[in-house]
Amino acid sequence: MNQYFKYILHLSLLLSVTGCKQHYKLTDSKSENKQINNELSTNDFSETIISPYRIELTSKMNEVINTSLIDMEIGAPEGLLGNFVCDLTYIKAKEISDKPVDFCLLNNGGLRTPLPKGEITRGKIFELMPFENEIVIVELSGENMLDLIDYIKTKSLMTKSRKAGVPVSGLRMIITNDKVSEVKIGSFTFDKSKNYRVATSDYLSNGGDHMDFFLDPISIENTGIKLRDAILTHIIKLDNKNTEVNAVLDGRIYHAE
Predict the structure, then answer these.
(1) Where are the alpha helices (DSSP H) in the chain?
(2) Is residue 222 part of a domain?
(3) Run of H or E residues at 28
(4) pTM for this model (two decimals)
Protein backbone atom coordinates (compact mmCIF):
# COMPACT_ATOMS: atom_id res chain seq x y z
CA MET A 1 0.00 0.00 0.00
CA ASN A 2 1.54 3.38 -1.02
CA GLN A 3 1.76 6.38 1.33
CA TYR A 4 -1.25 8.19 -0.16
CA PHE A 5 -3.62 5.31 0.53
CA LYS A 6 -2.19 4.89 4.04
CA TYR A 7 -3.09 8.51 4.79
CA ILE A 8 -6.60 8.10 3.39
CA LEU A 9 -7.14 4.92 5.43
CA HIS A 10 -5.84 6.60 8.61
CA LEU A 11 -8.08 9.60 8.07
CA SER A 12 -11.17 7.48 7.39
CA LEU A 13 -10.58 5.59 10.64
CA LEU A 14 -10.33 8.85 12.57
CA LEU A 15 -13.52 10.12 10.98
CA SER A 16 -15.36 6.96 11.99
CA VAL A 17 -14.17 7.36 15.59
CA THR A 18 -15.17 10.99 15.91
CA GLY A 19 -18.42 10.57 14.04
CA CYS A 20 -17.67 13.53 11.77
CA LYS A 21 -19.55 13.78 8.48
CA GLN A 22 -18.73 16.40 5.87
CA HIS A 23 -20.83 17.19 2.78
CA TYR A 24 -19.37 19.25 -0.05
CA LYS A 25 -20.88 20.90 -3.13
CA LEU A 26 -18.76 22.07 -6.05
CA THR A 27 -19.45 25.79 -6.68
CA ASP A 28 -16.38 26.84 -8.66
CA SER A 29 -13.48 25.26 -10.48
CA LYS A 30 -10.14 26.71 -11.55
CA SER A 31 -6.98 25.11 -12.84
CA GLU A 32 -3.44 26.38 -12.46
CA ASN A 33 0.03 25.00 -12.04
CA LYS A 34 1.50 24.98 -8.55
CA GLN A 35 5.04 24.19 -7.56
CA ILE A 36 5.33 21.26 -5.17
CA ASN A 37 7.44 21.81 -2.08
CA ASN A 38 9.70 18.77 -1.98
CA GLU A 39 10.74 19.67 1.58
CA LEU A 40 7.28 18.77 2.91
CA SER A 41 7.78 15.36 4.49
CA THR A 42 5.19 12.59 4.56
CA ASN A 43 5.00 13.09 8.33
CA ASP A 44 4.15 16.77 7.84
CA PHE A 45 1.49 15.87 5.29
CA SER A 46 -0.05 13.31 7.63
CA GLU A 47 -0.07 15.78 10.52
CA THR A 48 -1.75 18.45 8.38
CA ILE A 49 -4.63 16.10 7.56
CA ILE A 50 -5.02 14.46 10.95
CA SER A 51 -4.42 17.38 13.34
CA PRO A 52 -8.01 18.78 13.41
CA TYR A 53 -9.43 15.37 14.24
CA ARG A 54 -6.78 14.69 16.89
CA ILE A 55 -7.78 17.93 18.61
CA GLU A 56 -11.45 16.94 18.58
CA LEU A 57 -10.69 13.42 19.84
CA THR A 58 -8.45 14.78 22.62
CA SER A 59 -11.22 17.13 23.70
CA LYS A 60 -13.66 14.21 23.85
CA MET A 61 -11.27 12.08 25.91
CA ASN A 62 -10.65 14.95 28.35
CA GLU A 63 -14.37 15.36 29.05
CA VAL A 64 -15.07 14.99 32.80
CA ILE A 65 -17.95 12.56 33.30
CA ASN A 66 -18.05 12.33 37.12
CA THR A 67 -15.95 12.46 40.28
CA SER A 68 -14.68 9.59 42.42
CA LEU A 69 -14.85 10.03 46.18
CA ILE A 70 -12.02 7.55 46.76
CA ASP A 71 -8.99 5.92 45.18
CA MET A 72 -10.01 2.58 43.69
CA GLU A 73 -7.54 -0.20 42.97
CA ILE A 74 -7.66 -3.95 42.42
CA GLY A 75 -6.96 -6.24 45.37
CA ALA A 76 -7.19 -9.71 46.87
CA PRO A 77 -9.29 -11.35 48.12
CA GLU A 78 -11.33 -8.32 47.00
CA GLY A 79 -10.61 -4.77 45.87
CA LEU A 80 -12.56 -1.55 45.55
CA LEU A 81 -12.07 -1.29 41.78
CA GLY A 82 -13.07 -4.90 41.14
CA ASN A 83 -16.16 -4.55 43.34
CA PHE A 84 -17.22 -1.37 41.55
CA VAL A 85 -16.83 -2.71 38.00
CA CYS A 86 -18.34 -6.10 38.84
CA ASP A 87 -21.36 -4.53 40.55
CA LEU A 88 -22.17 -2.28 37.60
CA THR A 89 -21.65 -5.15 35.13
CA TYR A 90 -23.99 -7.35 37.16
CA ILE A 91 -26.61 -4.58 37.18
CA LYS A 92 -26.28 -4.11 33.40
CA ALA A 93 -26.50 -7.83 32.68
CA LYS A 94 -29.71 -8.15 34.71
CA GLU A 95 -31.20 -5.15 32.90
CA ILE A 96 -30.65 -6.51 29.41
CA SER A 97 -31.28 -10.24 29.82
CA ASP A 98 -34.74 -11.77 29.67
CA LYS A 99 -33.59 -14.54 32.01
CA PRO A 100 -32.27 -14.32 35.59
CA VAL A 101 -28.55 -13.63 36.02
CA ASP A 102 -27.17 -15.20 39.19
CA PHE A 103 -23.86 -13.37 39.61
CA CYS A 104 -20.95 -11.67 37.83
CA LEU A 105 -17.30 -12.70 37.61
CA LEU A 106 -14.47 -10.74 35.96
CA ASN A 107 -10.68 -10.65 36.37
CA ASN A 108 -8.25 -8.17 37.88
CA GLY A 109 -5.91 -8.55 34.90
CA GLY A 110 -8.49 -6.87 32.68
CA LEU A 111 -8.60 -3.72 34.81
CA ARG A 112 -5.49 -2.04 33.55
CA THR A 113 -5.18 1.08 35.73
CA PRO A 114 -6.49 2.31 39.09
CA LEU A 115 -9.33 4.82 39.23
CA PRO A 116 -7.96 7.68 41.36
CA LYS A 117 -9.90 10.00 43.63
CA GLY A 118 -11.12 13.13 41.88
CA GLU A 119 -12.35 13.93 38.39
CA ILE A 120 -12.99 11.01 36.05
CA THR A 121 -12.46 11.70 32.36
CA ARG A 122 -13.79 9.63 29.48
CA GLY A 123 -10.19 8.90 28.51
CA LYS A 124 -9.46 7.47 31.95
CA ILE A 125 -12.10 4.78 31.39
CA PHE A 126 -10.43 3.90 28.08
CA GLU A 127 -7.18 3.49 30.03
CA LEU A 128 -8.94 1.36 32.64
CA MET A 129 -10.59 -0.85 30.03
CA PRO A 130 -8.65 -0.54 26.73
CA PHE A 131 -10.01 -3.80 25.32
CA GLU A 132 -13.06 -4.33 23.11
CA ASN A 133 -14.42 -7.05 25.40
CA GLU A 134 -18.19 -7.54 25.47
CA ILE A 135 -20.49 -8.71 28.24
CA VAL A 136 -21.76 -12.28 27.84
CA ILE A 137 -23.92 -14.42 30.10
CA VAL A 138 -22.76 -18.01 30.45
CA GLU A 139 -24.88 -20.80 31.92
CA LEU A 140 -22.75 -23.29 33.86
CA SER A 141 -23.52 -26.66 35.36
CA GLY A 142 -23.02 -27.29 39.07
CA GLU A 143 -19.93 -29.36 38.26
CA ASN A 144 -18.31 -26.49 36.37
CA MET A 145 -19.32 -24.18 39.18
CA LEU A 146 -17.22 -26.29 41.54
CA ASP A 147 -14.20 -25.56 39.34
CA LEU A 148 -15.11 -21.86 39.30
CA ILE A 149 -15.31 -21.79 43.10
CA ASP A 150 -11.94 -23.53 43.41
CA TYR A 151 -10.47 -21.02 40.95
CA ILE A 152 -11.67 -18.10 43.08
CA LYS A 153 -10.22 -19.72 46.19
CA THR A 154 -6.82 -20.27 44.54
CA LYS A 155 -6.62 -16.71 43.22
CA SER A 156 -7.77 -15.30 46.56
CA LEU A 157 -4.93 -17.04 48.38
CA MET A 158 -2.27 -15.71 46.00
CA THR A 159 0.06 -12.96 47.16
CA LYS A 160 2.41 -10.52 45.46
CA SER A 161 0.69 -10.81 42.09
CA ARG A 162 -1.29 -8.23 40.15
CA LYS A 163 -3.62 -11.03 39.03
CA ALA A 164 -4.39 -12.18 42.58
CA GLY A 165 -8.05 -12.08 43.55
CA VAL A 166 -11.20 -12.46 41.44
CA PRO A 167 -13.76 -9.63 41.23
CA VAL A 168 -17.31 -10.91 41.80
CA SER A 169 -20.78 -9.55 42.42
CA GLY A 170 -23.80 -11.53 43.62
CA LEU A 171 -21.51 -14.25 45.00
CA ARG A 172 -20.11 -14.44 48.53
CA MET A 173 -17.45 -16.86 49.74
CA ILE A 174 -15.76 -17.63 53.04
CA ILE A 175 -12.36 -19.32 52.99
CA THR A 176 -11.33 -20.93 56.28
CA ASN A 177 -7.97 -22.62 56.80
CA ASP A 178 -7.34 -22.31 53.06
CA LYS A 179 -10.54 -24.23 52.26
CA VAL A 180 -13.90 -22.96 51.03
CA SER A 181 -16.28 -23.19 53.98
CA GLU A 182 -19.28 -21.31 52.56
CA VAL A 183 -20.55 -20.09 49.18
CA LYS A 184 -23.73 -18.13 48.59
CA ILE A 185 -25.19 -17.14 45.24
CA GLY A 186 -27.47 -14.23 45.96
CA SER A 187 -29.25 -15.13 49.21
CA PHE A 188 -29.00 -18.89 48.72
CA THR A 189 -26.33 -21.44 49.56
CA PHE A 190 -24.61 -22.83 46.48
CA ASP A 191 -26.24 -26.05 45.21
CA LYS A 192 -24.13 -28.16 42.87
CA SER A 193 -27.25 -29.84 41.47
CA LYS A 194 -28.33 -26.51 39.91
CA ASN A 195 -27.19 -24.53 36.88
CA TYR A 196 -26.10 -20.91 37.27
CA ARG A 197 -26.01 -17.98 34.81
CA VAL A 198 -22.84 -15.93 35.12
CA ALA A 199 -22.21 -12.48 33.62
CA THR A 200 -18.62 -12.15 32.42
CA SER A 201 -16.58 -10.95 29.42
CA ASP A 202 -16.32 -12.74 26.09
CA TYR A 203 -12.55 -13.00 26.64
CA LEU A 204 -13.00 -14.92 29.89
CA SER A 205 -15.85 -17.04 28.48
CA ASN A 206 -13.36 -18.29 25.87
CA GLY A 207 -11.03 -19.55 28.62
CA GLY A 208 -9.02 -16.37 29.09
CA ASP A 209 -6.92 -16.10 32.28
CA HIS A 210 -7.11 -19.91 32.54
CA MET A 211 -10.86 -19.89 33.27
CA ASP A 212 -11.31 -23.31 31.69
CA PHE A 213 -14.60 -23.88 33.55
CA PHE A 214 -16.24 -21.60 30.95
CA LEU A 215 -15.22 -23.80 28.02
CA ASP A 216 -18.05 -26.33 28.41
CA PRO A 217 -21.11 -24.11 28.92
CA ILE A 218 -24.74 -25.11 28.78
CA SER A 219 -25.47 -21.90 26.88
CA ILE A 220 -24.02 -18.47 26.11
CA GLU A 221 -26.00 -15.26 25.68
CA ASN A 222 -24.18 -12.55 23.72
CA THR A 223 -25.32 -9.07 24.74
CA GLY A 224 -23.38 -7.06 22.15
CA ILE A 225 -22.50 -4.51 24.85
CA LYS A 226 -18.88 -3.60 25.42
CA LEU A 227 -17.75 -3.73 29.02
CA ARG A 228 -16.13 -0.31 28.65
CA ASP A 229 -19.42 1.17 27.41
CA ALA A 230 -21.22 -0.29 30.42
CA ILE A 231 -18.69 1.38 32.74
CA LEU A 232 -19.03 4.73 30.95
CA THR A 233 -22.83 4.59 30.92
CA HIS A 234 -23.01 3.73 34.62
CA ILE A 235 -20.67 6.55 35.67
CA ILE A 236 -22.51 9.09 33.51
CA LYS A 237 -25.89 7.95 34.90
CA LEU A 238 -24.57 8.48 38.42
CA ASP A 239 -23.47 11.98 37.45
CA ASN A 240 -26.91 12.73 35.99
CA LYS A 241 -28.35 11.81 39.41
CA ASN A 242 -25.79 14.08 41.12
CA THR A 243 -24.18 10.99 42.65
CA GLU A 244 -20.41 10.66 42.82
CA VAL A 245 -18.58 7.39 42.24
CA ASN A 246 -17.90 5.28 45.33
CA ALA A 247 -17.28 1.66 46.36
CA VAL A 248 -16.81 -0.37 49.54
CA LEU A 249 -15.12 -3.55 50.68
CA ASP A 250 -17.96 -5.68 52.04
CA GLY A 251 -16.36 -9.07 52.66
CA ARG A 252 -17.85 -10.75 49.61
CA ILE A 253 -14.69 -12.86 49.44
CA TYR A 254 -13.54 -13.34 53.01
CA HIS A 255 -10.39 -15.18 54.01
CA ALA A 256 -10.48 -16.19 57.67
CA GLU A 257 -6.82 -16.48 58.71
Answers:
(1) 3-18, 42-61, 80-96, 122-128, 142-156, 202-205, 227-240
(2) yes
(3) none
(4) 0.79
